[in-house]
Structures are given as C-alpha cells and as structure tokens.
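Subject line: Sequence and fold of a protein, written as structure tokens
Area: Proteins and the way their chains fold up in space.
Start of record: The labelled sequence and token lines come straight after this line.
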Amino acid sequence: MIEKTNLNNILFLDIETVPEEENFNLLDAEMQSLWDLKTQYQRKEDFTPEEFYDRAGIWAEFGKIICISVGYFTIKGDIRNFRVTSFFGDEEKILKDFNNLLNNHFNQPQHLLCGHNAKEFDIPFLARRMIINQIAIPDKLNLFGKKPWEIPHLDTLELWKFGDYKHFTSLKLLTKILGIPSPKGDIDGSQVAHVFYVEKDIDRIVTYCEKDTIAVAQIFLRLRREDLLIDDEIIHV
C-alpha cells in the first residue's frame, strides 16, 4: 500500500526533547517525589532519582520539546524536492507553530504524518505536551475514538517490523543496512540535553533533528524501492 501513497501528502517529522529542568534539584519537592515513583522500575537499585534525571526527556510529564523538524515532498513532473524546516525555542511557541502547520496545510483526509517510532514516542509526546501547554490538539494528533485504520500516521519502524511487535530497530541501524547515508552528525540523542543546557547550542540540535527527518524520508523511499534523495533535492527553509 505504501507504493500507492502520494508522497506529496506525507509530512515527515522528528522531535528533540530534554528534561524540563536542567537538573533534578530545580524540581520542587513534590515533582522530585513523583519522579522517584515514576522511575523506580527503570532505575531499580542502580541509580538514585537524581542520577537518573538526565533521562527525564523521554517522559512527557517530566520533559519538554525543544525542536520539531518537518519535511515534505514537492513533486512536479520530473522535478522532486524535499523541503525541510524546523520549529525551535520556547516550547509553547514551537507547539503552536506546529499546530498551525497541521491545521492549515496538512489537515485533509489524505494527509499523513510519518516518523520513526513516532506512534510510540513523537506523536504521544506532542499530544501530551500540547495538553500540558493548554493548546488544542489538532485533528491529525487526536486519536480518541478513531479505529486503527482511521489513524493518519505512518511509522517506518512499524513498517520494518512486518508485524513482529517485539522487534526494535534504531534509525541509525536501519539507515545503515538500507544503504542510506547516516543521518547522525556530531551528537546523538543522549547528548541533546547537554548541548541544550550546557553548551546552549540550539543550532546543533536543529541540524541533528533535521538530519533525522531526512533519514525517515529516505527510509520511506527505500521501502518503496525508489531512488534516494540527493543533496540538490533537499531544500532547507
């Protein structure tokens, strides 16, 4: 079925998240206690809640979004381009700008969202942070009452699973085995919080996020047995 999907109707995306505060001690006493309870199973006896706090960015209740990168194809005749842009800065503004993009340009029934592990991470994280920031959830993210076949999301991890639900393949591994140029630059996901809070270099994070978005599109093309994007086809806006 993915071969029949119109590439012009897909919005590819990736998000970068960090702990909501720079360190554990900046949380109030109640949030520290709730973090302790939330992470008991993952930490076991190996880490204290404070030592484990650098991983808070993976939970929407304790993390925040610092960048959303999106990409979309524009195909006219023989000319194919992939336009990439990012929203970054204040989380509320990021979410409102992304919301406006969905509501104004990707709000029709044929429009789809696509990410890698997006159904498990990016989409739920976006929806939860919108609720926390008191932003109306756009229709493309609001899944309440929808049947599985009505959900307008594609996921390259799910496509690669072929029904093997216990299976996980990272974006980096999948690009490697499919012969796609590595999306990773000089940082990886575990370093994003340090780059954000300590180095205060949001530009590095935006570059990293955009590379992942491009990689998702490349994987989708490979799954359709189509030519990969070349640098001249990728436009940063």
Observations:
- The chain has a mean pLDDT of 94.
- Strands lie at 10-19, 63-76, 79-88, 112-115, 153-155, 234-236.
